[in-house]
Each structure stands twice: as structure tokens, then as C-alpha cells.
Amino acid sequence: MKKKDRYNVAVMGATGAVGGQFLSILEERNFPIDELRPLASERSKGKKIYFKGSEHEVKVLGKGSFTGIDIVLASAGASRSREFLPHAAACGAVCVDNSSAFRMDVEVPLVVPEVNAHAIRGHKGIIANPNCSTIQMVLPLCAINKSSRIKRVVVTTFQSVSGAGQKNILEMERETTTLSRKESHYGIGEHNVSKDMVKEFAHQIAYNLIPHIDVFKENFYTKEEMKMVEETRKIMELPSLAVTATCVRVPVYYAHSESVNVETEKKLTREEVIVLLEEFPGITVVDDPGKNRYPMPIDVEGKDDVFVGRVREDESIPSGINMWVVADNLRKGAALNAIQIAECLISGV
């Protein structure tokens, strides 16, 4: 990308949850913007957004939306990314896409800047932002892999409803409000809502866990679980890495949590792993069992780092580590990571 003092930036999906985070983080980090061009669907036409004290009118996304644009930050869904980003790239823009559309395309870098910023140099106009649950996991994996090659990863995620969108947040709120008004004697079914209230999720999410995110594939894993497997291998450049995942939706507003078990080639102690994590950029260690200190979604919401705690040696195998990993899925898991990629672009990394 040609170095400039200021850049013209388009935000696809500017009125959505991640789009709002894009705007907030661009302002927080004082990204050098000349023109900001908010883009969204027809139903958002004419809406106003505010950026650095100025009002900007939302424009309807179209193939002609990218003339003069240097950088596109996209979070409008995979189908829109596939339809519009090739046009943006043809206009000379570099696109950072938050959807799944191009993640596994061999021609498209899949980037977490703290892990593989070097991959940005191979872009051909589009750079993919990984899945939120993958992003937060690969930081501690990379920290450990620098000291001892990772042989196997077993991860279970506990993913907040915000990862499914605003409609899903509202559904959880409606269900929770309904149940809180019910006079309960803690009998069977007293914590169930009526089936007609369940519209966005496969099942009631209030007071419940759903071990099912995205569609099931032929191997009985969900699409979300296989994203974690395939994306982790691509980002870490370890195509044969053994990874298995179970992804669970939980009734939490923001921030995803993960229980991560890592088997390494040589044994690492808890103390050695904590040092590796503390020295790695973008990670904050919160690990003091004596004071019940460990990362929790309620504390991590709105924070930029990936938080790691409950570090302990896996006593069931010769060389294993267990970790608890938490990050804000709308920030590091989405908008922040994309903007960090854009910062790498303009700095020439």
C-alpha cells in the first residue's frame, strides 16, 4: 500500500454491532482518516453515524461504493463480502474482511497481527480476519509454540450471544425477562419459556447452554468447530496440527471463554508457560488461585487484550497444559483485530 498521511476508509456494515466497534476503535486509536465512508444495506439508507464529533450519512452499499477508497473494513456478512470486495479490490482498495468468505482461500492471508503479521505482505487486495474464537486461542498457542512445538489442541468454547448478532441478544433478554417474572417453585419446566419465544437460536438460551453453533457438517462437528480447526492450522502455518473443538453458546452478553488443553513436544511447567504468556504481545495473565483471580467475561468486556488464567499442568499426559482464555469477541475477536491489520498495512509491516 502506498504510504500516505491520511487514508480514505469505507466501513461495510457500519450500522451493525461490529461496524459500530470499527468506528469506536478507529476513533480511540486515532487512525489517520481523511474520508470516512459508512456503508450499509438499503434499510439503513440515510441513517446518521457520528465519528470524531462529525455527522456522516450512511450510504447504500453497491459495486460503485469504493472509488477513491484506500482501505475497506468489512463486516456485512459472507455473501456481501463475496459480492462486493472483489470490486473494491479492483478499485485499488485493500479490504480487511471480518466474514468467513475468504478465510480458507489459499490466495488470501488470514491474519492475527501478533502471530503472523508477515502474511499481510502476500495480499492481493483482500485480507481475512479470522473467526472470533480462533483469534483469542492462537495468541496463547503461539506463545507456547515458541518454546515447545505443539502436538495437539483440545478446545471447548463458551461463546456469548453477541457473537450471533443483535437479534439474538434481544431474544435472550426477552426470555430472561419472561422467566424472571414467573413465580417458580423450582419444579421441572419452571425455567422454560414457550416455544414461540424461541426464534433466533435452536433452543432457549436463557438459563441454558446450547452445544451447537452454526450448522452441523457430515462429520457431526459444527461449521464453527471446523473453522477453529482449519483456521488455527492456517494462521500458525502448521497444516498437520491436531486440533479438535466443541463450541457452546452460553447466556452471556459479551466476551467468549475457552478451555484450552495443549499437548507439547517437551514438558513445560506452569511457571514457564506463565512467563511465555506474559512476554507475548496482546496477552494479559490473570492467574492467582489463592485470591480467586482468573479471567471472566464480565471483567474482560470492552478490553483489547486476550486474558489467560487457570494455567496448570495436565497430569494425565507427560507434556500438557490447561488454560482458561477469555476475550471480548467484538473487539479482539472482530473489529480490533481488523483495525490492527489495517495499522500494519499503513505502517508497511
Describe this structure in words.
The protein has 349 residues and is of the alpha/beta class. The chain is built from nine helices and 14 strands. The radius of gyration is 21 Å and the shape is globular. The N and C termini lie close together (10 Å). The mean pLDDT is 95.
Key phrases:
single chain, 349 residues, alpha/beta, Rossmann fold, Dihydrodipicolinate Reductase, domain 2, six-stranded parallel beta sheet, six-stranded mixed beta sheet, 9 helices, 23% strand
Question: Taking all residues together, what is the mean pLDDT?
Answer: 95
Uncertain segments of ≥5 residues (pLDDT<50)?
none
CATH architecture group name of the largest domain: 2-Layer Sandwich
Helicity level: 25-40%
Query: Roughly how many Å is the radius of gyration?
Result: 21 Å
What is the domain total for the residues? 2
How many H/I helical runs?
9
Counting DSSP E segments of at least 2 residues, the number of strands comes to: 14
Oligomer: single chain
Order of helices and strands: EHEEEEEHEHEHEHHEEHEHEEH
The shape, in one word, is: globular
Structure in a nutshell:
This protein folds into two domains: 7-130 and 334-347, NAD(P)-binding Rossmann-like Domain (Rossmann fold); 134-160 and 209-328, Dihydrodipicolinate Reductase, domain 2 (2-Layer Sandwich), CATH 3.30.360.10. The protein contains nine helices and 14 strands.
